[in-house]
Write a structure and sequence with these properties.
With 130 residues, the protein is mainly alpha-helical. The protein has five helices and no strands. 80% of the residues lie in helices and 0% in strands.
């Protein structure tokens, strides 16, 4: 991947996490419209909790990308890999269950898959760039 390092993947992921975290936590209605979901108080509450977790991941990546310890960066990468694999599978289930999924629906599993592949690359294929 040339000069692309784990800290660069963290940076890309930070921007995605900030966007989705803020949207879920503070403007969940946007997410419901985007994904054509029907909101109810329980779903709004869970969406806001998820937004808070996503913002927590963004904070972890922000400070982790600056860490001098490759062991710390790799531990964060493992945690994000687990999160991205599970989110990919959940997103695929969502898309498959909708039958007529749109490009917006497909954007989530595609993003999660790309991030998971990126973290797997830095953890197992090219760990020296971690």
């Amino acid at each position: 991947m040339g000069n692309f390092k784990l800290k660069h993947l963290f940076t890309i992921n930070i921007f995605l996490a900030i966007f989705f975290g803020i949207t879920c936590a503070f403007f969940p209605g946007i997410m419901f419209r985007l994904y054509r979901m029907t909101p109810n108080p329980d779903v709004v509450w869970v969406t806001r909790l998820v937004g808070g977790s996503i913002l927590g991941f963004a904070t972890l990546m922000f400070f982790g990308r600056k860490s001098a310890s490759s062991e710390t960066r790799r531990a964060i990468a493992y945690a994000l890999l687990v999160q991205d694999v599970i989110s990919f599978l959940a997103s695929m289930e969502f898309v498959i269950s909708r039958h007529a999924a749109s490009i917006v629906d497909w954007s989530s599993p595609i993003l999660y898959l790309l991030l998971a592949l990126g973290y797997a690359y830095f953890l197992w294929i090219n760990p020296s760039d971690s």
